[in-house]
Design brief:
four-stranded antiparallel sheet; 6% helix; 43% strand; single chain; mainly beta
């Protein structure tokens, strides 16, 4: 699967039900063996390789320029160390629980589903003050709102079906049709991108939102779905 707008990178690992287990940060998946796979780190221009398992847990970090799983059931891998001037070859033995290890909850990607479909953001959602924050323009446009940005006031205005939502960066209140509403987490700018609180935005536009804490998944249901 590819992710629109992210270069390089663009592949993610899904489970059998189609739920996304990783961010869209891999360039290529190579070998798959006994619940383990070698993946190219597509998030950087310099190609490095890593090992992840069937649950998306990182087993070997992306520090090697060549990595290959062997057919040995003990999960021995052959590696070439790109950090050394002589590019030495070596053998790396994986931990016994490599294929069954599950990633800590905080390492799972935050996914957002709209009427059952995984939304693809060009910048991954994040959690701030216990609230899921998503890229501003993408979420408004996905929900069918017309969006305008006032750079001087650092304020976004979104309109859909007679509802006008106004959010200013860093402000703990927002306006819905002119009525002030308190925010648990204000809109913010991170890495040059504007993020807004997902639940507030979706509910302001008359959508229902639920949160699956175990899978770090937000589910939006539009009216009439």
């Amino acid at each position: 699967m590819t992710k629109d707008g992210q270069i390089p990178g663009g592949y993610a690992l899904l489970d059998k039900e189609g739920n996304r287990l990783t961010e869209f940060k891999y360039g290529v998946f190579f070998t798959y063996m006994d619940g383990l796979m070698v993946a190219d780190d597509g998030s950087t221009w310099v190609s490095t390789h890593q090992v992840i398992n069937q649950f998306g847990a990182l087993i070997v970090p992306p520090v090697f320029d060549f990595l290959d799983l062997t057919d040995d059931k003990t999960c021995v891998v052959s590696v070439q160390d790109s950090l050394a001037d002589n590019n030495r070859m070596g053998i790396l033995r994986l931990p016994a629980d490599a294929a069954t290890r599950k990633p800590p909850a905080g390492e799972r990607p935050i996914t957002v589903y709209l009427d059952g479909l995984d939304l693809l953001f060009d910048t991954e959602p994040t959690i701030m003050n216990g609230r899921t924050m998503v890229p501003m323009r993408k979420i408004f446009e996905t929900l069918g709102a017309d969006v305008s940005w006032d750079g001087e006031a650092r304020k976004v205005t979104a309109v859909r079906d007679g509802v006008t939502v106004e959010l200013a960066i860093g402000k703990d209140t927002a306006l819905i049709n002119g009525e002030a509403m308190k925010l648990d987490a204000p809109a913010m700018i991170r890495d040059g991108r504007s993020f807004v609180p997902l639940r507030f935005v979706a509910e302001a536009l008359n959508c229902d939102v639920s949160w699956d804490a175990g899978n770090r998944r937000a589910m939006i249901e539009t009216a009439g779905n």
